[in-house]
Amino acid sequence: MTTTPAATDLTHLDAAELGRLLGAGEVSAVDVTRAHLDRIAADDGLLHAYLHVDGETALATAAAVDAARAAGDELGPLAGVPVALKDVVVTEGVPTTSGSRILEGWRPPYDATVAARLKAAGTVLLGKTNMDEFAMGSSTENSAYGVTRNPWDPERIPGGSSGGSSAAVAGHLAPWALGTDTGGSIRQPAALTGLVGHKPTYGSVSRYGLIAFSSSLDQAGPMARTVLDAAVLHEAIGGHDPRDSTSIPGQHPLLAEAARLGAGGDLTGVRIGVVRELGGEGHAEGYEPGVLARVAEALAVLEGLGAEVREVSCPSFDLALAAYYLIAPSEASSNLSRFDGVRFGLRVGDDGSRDLDEVMALTREQGFGAEVKRRIILGTYALSSGYYEAYYGQAQKVRTLIGRDFASAFGSGDGDGVDVLVSPTTPTVAFPLGARVDDPIAMYAADLCTLPASLAGTPAISVPCGLSDGLPVGFQIMAPTLADDRCYRVAAALEAAQDAARGHRLLDELAARRTTGGPA
Amino acid sequence: MGFHHSMSNLSREDVAHLARLARLAVTDEELDLFAGQLDVVLGAVARVGTAAVADVPPTTHAVPLTNVLRPDELTPSLPREAVLAGAPASEDDRFRVPRILGESA
Questions:
Q1: Rg (chain B; Cα; Å)
Q2: How crowded is residue A184: how many other Cβ atoms within 10 Å of its Cβ?
Q3: Domain shared by A376 and A451, yes or no
Q4: Are residues A371 and A233 in the same domain?
Q5: Full domain range(s) for residue A409
Q6: Contact between A458 and B47 using a beta-carbon 8 Å cutoff
Q7: Are A298 and A439 in contact (CB under 8 A)?
Q8: CA of B96, closest CA in chain A: separation in Å?
Q9: Which residues of A are catalytically annotated?
Q10: Domain boundary among A368, A398, A428
């Protein structure tokens, strides 16, 4: 370690606490930024959480915040707090690849809305984080730029597709980060690294400037070390955006307030439904006993806080995986047609001897990795004449059934349903690097529990609920559309109760391992 | 379309045909690999066919919004040079593309 003890301390503070200390003038943005850059310099050689770090620009941004504060300017609560962005988020002038060779070296001419909002809030961009190419994957092994390692065990995956963000935040290389979630890509990596990760209600966070994978499913959201931090980051990026035609207008729920309410520990009257089809009786095949045990313990904790827990059946969830792996590849095959070697990124074979079609095909052959090609081909098949109804059309109808299962579980709001649904976030803890790369179906199974909320567009959070075999387990809380506040409230209650019972935070156990013998 | 086999049975030729449709110049090795893998994936996703959905409408979007319009006001576009800066090739303030017509045209 090259970092001084004082600098290390700054990387261990929550983002909300950093914001408070910065606002009170107790620390400078430059010191906070430098501490994280030092940590990146020391540890990212191993973890490879980042694809791009520009320390000079980050320090200049931080210095500008410090100067503005010294001049007495009115600054927001996040001014000077560093942040990392998944490389699917377009950033003006900052290299953005979406984990793909086809965009190597591209510097976008504009900012995504989420990036612009964080910039306007005065946050300091540390860098862009690694990811599965075009967010297609569950392990970050599909990145064209190499794998990212899990800080809990460098021989294991950090989850995916937002695995660079999860490794960066769990490894204290950033206080928090943005991920995107299409089928679980925020929640699953958060679960596997001991973080809080929330997929917002579809339409509640702008998709403008996210490189599209599956447009009816993609959502950006927060990844953080505490529920409160996740809520604060979510509020900073959320709300209506006229540049996204699927953005929901009007009032959005108050999230940090919900997290604070939950941390108070009283869940009296909150009705929790445990989804039988996600690891329950008769549906436990493929679920690790250690994962199910931690989830059962979390349920007991929530019951102890006054919540009413019952089992709920959502039979269509059994078909979520099949529907998702038709809908997402179909939309992807259409979205990725924009990578044609004409307007941005790579062009291959343009030597005067080939026509446009040939150059396009060569460019896409060399620019895309295997998983992206598989999904484009699968999506092209599912959308082709003669097969459309049997595959894509049928998947869209199953999507309706999944939405109905949620609606029936949540009821009409008159006490006939539950307030939230819960499940494990993932069937297993983080698996070893390479374990599933040659078996797409095994890889896809990592998303089993997160897919239903993706297809229904409902909000869902993953919050740590303990360790199994020394690795983090995630507890998923799903809520009705635009009731993201319920996710934060219940998650904060669980977090506060388990931290109190344990006497420390789960992530402190990772820090303890580091100080006794390096990462893991 | 001329796929060679019944549903959820994807041949090497089918994959080559689909790759052509998607403008992907796949290699022989990829064809071998993908045909086997995609056949397994198709078998798994074909499970959607088991759902009883005769009277169920499709969902295209989880949060349907219709007629989303912004105010009809002029707003600046990106500067042309900023957009062209990211292009693989440009000429006369435009994207330059490989030829799109045959030599005889």
A1: 23
A2: 32
A3: no
A4: no
A5: 5-317+399-516
A6: no
A7: no
A8: 7
A9: 86, 161, 185
A10: A398
